[in-house]
Amino acid sequence: MKICVINTGGTVGCVGDPLAPMSAADFAANSRRLLDPILLAMFPELEPSWETGLAFPESATGTLDSTNLQPRDWCLIARYILDNYERFDGFVLLHGTDSMDFTASALPFLLNAFDAQGTPKAALSKPVIVTGSQVPMYRRGSPDTLRFNTDAFQNLCGAVACARQAVPEVCVYFDARLFRGNRALKVNASDFCAFDSPNFEPLGTYGIALDLDRDLILPGPVSNAVSLAEPAVRAAAKARLDAIAGAIDDWPVMPFSAFPAAYDVGGGARIARLIDACVGTGIRGLVLRSYGEGNFPSGNPDRPADGAIYRALEAARRGGVTIVDSTQVIAGRVGSSAYAAGAWLPKIGAICAADMTPVAALAKLMILLAAADHEGWTRADVERLFQRDLCGEVTVAPLR
User: pLDDT by residue (tens digit) across 240-281?
Assistant: First the structure.
């Protein structure tokens, strides 16, 4: 059982006081010396490979604090996995916790491919388990030593255990729970239980033994004709990924939260001016983090169409910006027709995120937009695909 461990950076690979990242090569050397004997005692058939070939060009060490990861870095990670896909049975991706949920949400849409109807053209057939820690793995010394009583050690061992299973998904493993990657959210900044999956049950838990709920796990490729295990499928997936990597910076998507702000029913609104300013920077997608079930101030509570915010969003939509109605509430789903305060959003062309996390909504929309030219999709295709369940990211999505 060959498992590839890729270190992108983050707390798990930091050492010293103050904490600073070690290089992927130093982390790999420590891991071969200190972790391999433990992992091989747990899993005698295991062949761990501490890969150091992935490097982020914006970093002197080649690794990155996840705060600094860019969308193009998601593409680098996905390409590294595809380039090494044939060599390994599973992948463990070590990652900083700050934007782990963004990367884990993006990778499924980069490693799987679909046609305009949402039918798979390339499907992940091997596990990709993303993990990290709140506490570093190693203590600096001569030589460095392993910090056993940490979430770093526990999370890595658990992630390796999950990567040995036939789970054809991108997942997050953290604090003894395995989550679907595009359902995970960081919910705690300081405790070991840093991640949760508010709208979807964990795929598994690791107590005395690893217990997976196979009924929740995605089925994987329906045939070899769409499996990434096939060289021709993988080659097509790489060509698509390269096209996305070349375009993704041209399709920026940003979140925009509803918040209490002054407005003049007969005139302007600060939120409207902020929306205009954001659109002026060239954004191509706007993920509204609305209140509750998808309610967003229009600027006129009695006649939404006369509100400055309504007009700003309507103008953005006409100008080519795709608008998604999501929610800033951690759990639950958007139902923008339930209240008058949200029922106006579909009228200006906003599409519904249903129970997608706003993190997954942002990553999904950006990748679909960046893939559109390569795939020959229209704007209507992108908006229809956004509302489809492509990789288990949404339970029920309304189709327009």
Answer: 999 999 999 999 999 999 999 988 876 778 999 999 999 999
Instruction: For residues 111 and 186, give the distance between their C-alpha atoms in angstroms, rounded to a whole number.
Output: 22
Phi/psi at 83 (nearest 5 deg)? -65, -30
Nearest alpha-carbon partner for 172 in 395, 397, 396, 392: 392
In whole angstroms, give the CA distance from residue 65 to residue 326.
27
Our CA angle for 245, 101, 206, nearest 5°, is: 130
Rounded CA separation 203/213 (Å): 5
> Encoding tokens for residue 350?
């906003």
d(CA 369, CA 252): 9
The C-alpha atoms of residue 92 and residue 71 are separated, in whole angstroms, by 20
Structural domains of the chain, with CATH:
2-245 (3.40.50.1170), 251-386 (3.40.50.40)
Model's pTM, two decimal places?
Answer: 0.96
Backbone angles phi, psi at 235, to 5 degrees: -65, -40
DSSP 294: T
How far is the C-alpha of 243 from the C-alpha of 241, rounded, in Å?
5
Cα–Cα distance, 393 to 331 (Å, whole number): 14
Instruction: Taking the CA atoms of 334, 340, 343 and 345 in sequence, report the sign of the dihedral they define.
Output: negative
Question: Is residue 143 reached through a cis peptide bond, with omega within 30 degrees of 0 on the bond before it?
Answer: yes
Q: How many CA atoms lie within 13 A of 295 on its CB side?
A: 10
